Amino acid sequence: MRGTKVHRMPAFSEPSFVDRLLGWYRQAGRDLPWRRSPTPYQVVVSELMLQQTTVATALVRYSRFLQAFPDFPSLASATEDEVVAAWAGLGYYQRARHLSRLARQVEKAGLPKGEAAWRRLPGVGPYTAAAIVAFAEGGRTLAIDVNVRRTLSRLLALKDAPRLDVAIRSAIEPALPADSGEVNQALIELGALVCRPTRPSCPSCPLAEICLGRHQPELYGHGPKKAAVRDERIQLVAVRRRGRLLVRQRTTRLLEGLWGLPAAAAGELGLPDGVQGGPVLDTSVQFTHRFTHRRWQVRCTVVDGDGEGHWIDPRAPDVALAGPDRRAVEMLVAGGYIDG
Ligand code: SF4
Q1: pTM of this prediction?
Q2: Looking at the structure, do residues 33 and 101 belong to the same domain, yes or no?
Q3: Residue 102 belongs to domain with CATH number
Q4: 249 CA to centre of ligand 1 in angstroms
Q5: Pocket test for ligand 1, best of 207, 209, 212, 219 (most atoms within 8 A of CB)
Q6: Total domains present in the chain
Q7: Do 239 and 210 share a structural domain?
Q8: Which of 35, 95, 166, 222 has the greatest number of beta carbons closer than 10 A?
Q9: 219, 251, 271: which is the final residue of a domain?
Q10: Is the pLDDT at 9 greater than 50, yes or no?
Q11: Burial class (CB in 10 A: 0-12, 13-18, 19+), 304
């Protein structure tokens, strides 16, 4: 393999790798709803949800999403906007759109089988396709997410390299059982709970005796550097009319499809495009909203006016508001800014 030094790994030719891992997982693994006899649909939903969302948040949203859309037919018959609305609070709404399109393709062409077939569907990359095959089809494959990559590169003492995943896969896949779902779950869990990015718990790790990198785990599994968080100033304008507020559907990739208050140029008490009225009044509604790679410093003004868009009852919005907008509206209601 050119460019990547692939170590010979006697530890992984020994059968104890899987036994040690499963012995630990059956004792220490968390009981997560998407792990209980999952169907392909449940695996697809949970894996797309977990792509950019913590387990704690996904735990709350997963059950609600399944109540709204229990299977591929119900998801396929919903509009994309309805799916995006059910995704509210999870962020990265492109995933909801992918899920909606994926369900329609499954309904039209039938359930795919095998990693290559799954990867042809929207939003399904190499990790997600392998996870579906391992968890729902009972196939033999290795699903390499960030936790698994870190754990196995330490286990194999493989430093980061362009073809790291290929090296990991070639070393580990032969050791996997034909039905690899539980081993894959165990590896993900070990990376999340024991072989953590910093200060891994090597003394309590079930693989410590066969881990080639345990003496210096910090040398391995760093992955690409995280992108810096960018600060942005956002000026939202609450346009009031007879106790209702004007909202518009966002078109930027970050919050695409969700609804929000119109925005003016940051730092100016101006009117957004397509809004008439005045004067513009400042409010005490200011807060910071954090996304993964951005931090919005939000400030909100109010104006009595008119404009193009949809008018909501701010105490009971009938559209899915984006997170920062929902917070702004709640603060405006609590601060008595709605009725002037
Ligand atoms: S022994 Fe330490 S470095 Fe090796 S897999 Fe376990 S936690 Fe990770």
Answers
A1: 0.71
A2: yes
A3: 1.10.340.30
A4: 47
A5: 207
A6: 2
A7: no
A8: 95
A9: 219
A10: no
A11: middle
pLDDT digits (tens, 9 = 90+) for 314-323: 999 988 888 8
Residue 174, number of CB atoms within 10 A of its CB? 10
Decide if 2 is inside a domain.
no
- Is residue 225 included in any domain, yes or no? no
Q: Does the annotation mark 47 as catalytic?
A: yes
Residue 13 has a pLDDT of 60
CA-based torsion, 241, 242, 243, 247: positive or negative: negative
Residues 260 and 168 in one domain: no
Q: What domain range is 327 assigned to?
A: 230-334
Do residues 53 and 168 both lie within one domain? yes
Best residue among 211, 215, 218, 219 to mutate for probing ligand 1's pocket (most ligand atoms within 8 Å of CB) is: 211
Across the range 10-20, mean pLDDT stands at 71
Q: For 232-273, what is each residue's pLDDT tens digit?
A: 999 999 999 999 999 999 888 778 778 999 998 776 677 888
CA–CA dist 161, 164 (Å, integer): 5
C-beta separation of 280 from 272 below 8 A:
no
Q: 192-238: per-residue pLDDT in tens? A: 999 999 899 999 999 999 998 999 988 887 655 667 788 999 999 99
- Measured by CA distance, the residue closest to atom 1 of ligand 1 is 208
For residue 4, what pLDDT band results from cuts at 50, 70 and 90?
very low
Predicted confidence at residue 340, as pLDDT, reads 63
Is there a single domain that holds both residue 276 and residue 132?
no
Q: What is the CATH number of the domain that holds 269?
A: 3.90.79.10
End-to-end CA distance of the chain: 70
Report pLDDT for 190. 97
